[in-house]
Amino acid sequence: MELSLFSMLPFAFLFILFSISLTIFFNQKATSNLPPGKTGLPFLGESLEFLTDGWKGQSGKFIHDRMAKFSPQAFKTSLFGAPTVVMCGAQGNKFLFSNENKLVTAWWPSSINKIFPSSNQTSSNDEMKKMRKLLPQFLRAEALHRYIGIMDTIAQRHFDSDWKNTDNNNHNHDVSLVTVFPLSKLYTFWLACRLFISVEDPEHVAKFSKPFELVASGMFSIPIDLPGTAFNKGIKAANLIRKELREIIKQRKIDLAENKASPTQDILSHMLLTPDEDGKYMQEMDIADKILGLLVGGHDTASATVTFIIKYLAELPHVYDLVLKEQMEIAKPKAPGELLNWEDLQKMKYSWNVACEVMRLVPPLQGAFREAITDFMYAGYSVPKGWKLYWSAHSTHQNPEYFPEPEKFDPSRFEGTGPVPYTYVPFGGGPRMCPGKEYARLEILVFMHNLVKRFRWEKVLPCEKIVVNPMPVPEKGLPIRLFPHNPSQSS
């Protein structure tokens, strides 16, 4: 935690007028049909408990406790300064995903709008709609086919250059000690930089990546802009990244004018050259904001997923052996230097089932917010217009009704038709399902292929805690010992 509860309370009183107005709002909207629950402290609501459960390594506890205490279908709370109804289970997911722009619309905490201030010129919703129109051109099947070779090249460079021994006291040069999470972030960030803005120099990427962790943490923090808070650090880091991006944008404009850059080489060129419906081109700051958002979204969740794949493969040797067998069958027929292709990735069925089971147990996207755009009823409860709605992956992923023995690691859950609809939601669902889902699948599978071809490994800390801030991460970054395969095994 950036600040203790007691150090934050005096600042909370600065918002006393806001809390009074919030209380009035609650009273005006209160009816006997609201879902059961509690709204916690003025202004803060239950945000601290919501966040600290994750920081303590008890991800999902906030949701499960209230489902058990109040209702397994829906409960009320207050999160990030807003009255909120948490909708639970497959029916809750189905209701929210099916009623996008009918009864509900997307909503983000004010912390996100303040970290991405240029989006306030319109609204976060409008900005996201614009991005969803831009992205399909870069995430369509033909483009994804082309990205696989680039991903494989970068993965090979990444393992050759970065997965080296970091233990100066280790005299066994055949065994390396590395910390996984920072390395997985470097891989996914390197890919995002290469494919979104054509930056791939390792030193440039490394310099660029350091502030991104602060931005991600600040996005879902209590919006108190005081020195030392996660929110304040997130704002400063975002400003620093924007400055770097604007330099890249200015140079790209020059390169495009001099035909030194291609109009179709990445999403940055497309943003610079494509006008909106009114014939207007995006301002540099708007482009910087959008690229910033893409870079955060394009690497954070995937880096968490590959980290936990490594964790579970270390704990489950029989699963590792099956992944290795599948990947070596793909690698053996390939000529020296031949890169992975689309057909190769379609053969990685068991490996992807393993990745899906990892995302069930440790969902990279914990949940997301919506806002009620009209009064409506759900499960016998009334939800007033203006209230926020929240869906949580924990309400289904760990539910034995949908996943028998939910604590058991079982990739076979994803064979055939897979889980019941609306129960497995690591990428969200409905019209707002993550548009980068297939991109994420490719970068995860390319990573797994290059990893298991090179190494076996073991965890250094057998019982390392998983914390959420705001993505799930191993508390110490998942240090492991790497054991390279014999050359004959990995050729």
Automatic annotation (TrEMBL):
Cellular-component GO terms for this entry: membrane
Coiled-coil positions: none
Keywords, sorted A to Z: Heme, Iron, Membrane, Metal-binding, Monooxygenase, Oxidoreductase, Transmembrane, Transmembrane helix
Cited PANTHER family: CYTOCHROME P450 26, CYTOCHROME P450 716A1-RELATED
Protein name: Beta-amyrin 28-oxidase
Location of this chain's protein in the cell: Membrane
Binding residues annotated for heme, in chain numbering: C434
Cofactor annotation: heme
Keyword Oxidoreductase: yes
A Gene Ontology biological process term: sterol metabolic process
Family listed: Belongs to the cytochrome P450 family.
Organism: Camellia sinensis var. sinensis
GO MF term list: heme binding; iron ion binding; monooxygenase activity; oxidoreductase activity, acting on paired donors, with incorporation or reduction of molecular oxygen
Membrane topology value: Single-pass membrane protein
Span of the signal peptide: none
Database matches in PROSITE patterns: CYTOCHROME_P450
